[in-house]
TrEMBL record:
It is found in: Plastid. This is Plastid lipid-associated protein/fibrillin conserved domain-containing protein. It comes from Ostreococcus mediterraneus. The lineage of its organism: Eukaryota, Viridiplantae, Chlorophyta, Mamiellophyceae, Mamiellales. Residues 148-251 form the Plastid lipid-associated protein/fibrillin conserved domain. Pfam families: PAP_fibrillin (PF04755).
């Protein structure tokens, strides 16, 4: 599961306060509005949290270069949005659409649980799709060094997710550039349905993987022998951002 975004649209919020109304009110009314505002986030509150979350995802390379403190801040911002989502009741109809992955976070324990559940092939597909997350080792805050003299033969160009709940289909898509110019695309085809165990949860079963390189392909392979399954629980969604948690612990 992911923090994802789609085309820039005006964010919506169920409740808002009006400064002009506050200015005309008595002190008691102002205090009442302020108290209500603490419980009911305004559009500005939502916009502030979203902007901070998107900015931190960008500066930490989708969580890949996050320190322990930055990871904690990412999780705190996700929790803030989740609290707003809980007040508004998540509308899964808004999950429909085309999404671009901003970040995926997972603890070392989450990663171990995921690999045990998915097995070697399922785990490899999760890594390719970008859904495995940046694993933070809480025992150290130092970041691994990389050598700029080592060429990256395959560079990630983005991770995407298309969801159509009405049609019962979903797709995770990872795009790469080989040698800096040859396009490589990996698609994980899935079926999805609203889970009976939670109104904000989608059950997902991955059916096939397709690989295209340059103008060749796609080369398709069924995943029936692996039967990878899981669920995604959306904790917040509006017109342009979505956050959620998965059955294997990732955010």
């Amino acid at each position: 599961t992911t923090m994802a975004t789609r085309g820039a649209m005006t964010p919506r919020c169920a409740t808002s306060t009006h400064p002009s109304r506050i200015a005309r009110s008595s002190r008691g009314a102002r205090d009442a509005v302020r108290a209500r505002a603490r419980d009911e986030p305004t559009t500005d509150d939502v916009g502030r949290v979203k902007a901070a979350l998107i900015r931190l995802c960008a500066t930490t390379d989708g969580g890949k270069r996050a320190t322990s403190s930055e990871r904690e801040e990412l999780e705190r911002l996700v929790d803030e949005l989740a609290a707003i989502g809980a007040r508004e009741d998540v509308n899964l109809a808004r999950v429909n659409g085309k999404w671009s992955l901003l970040a995926t976070l997972a603890s070392a324990e989450d990663a171990k649980t995921r690999k045990n559940k998915e097995g070697a092939i399922g785990s490899a597909l999760t890594e390719i799709s970008g859904s495995s997350g940046r694993v933070i080792d809480d025992s150290t805050s130092s970041m691994p060094s990389t050598s700029s003299s080592i060429p990256k033969l395959i560079a990630s160009k983005g991770n995407y997710q298309d969801i159509d709940i009405d049609a019962g289909v979903a797709e995770n898509r990872a795009e790469f550039a080989v040698f800096g110019k040859i396009p490589l695309t990996v698609r994980l085809k899935a079926s999805c349905a609203i889970s009976p165990n939670g109104t904000a949860r989608l059950d997902v079963a991955f059916d096939a993987v397709e690989v295209s390189l340059g103008g060749a392909g796609p080369l398709a392979m069924s995943l029936a022998f692996v039967n990878p399954r899981g669920w995604i629980e959306t904790t917040y969604v509006d017109d342009d951002i979505r956050t959620g948690k998965g059955d294997k612990g990732s955010i």
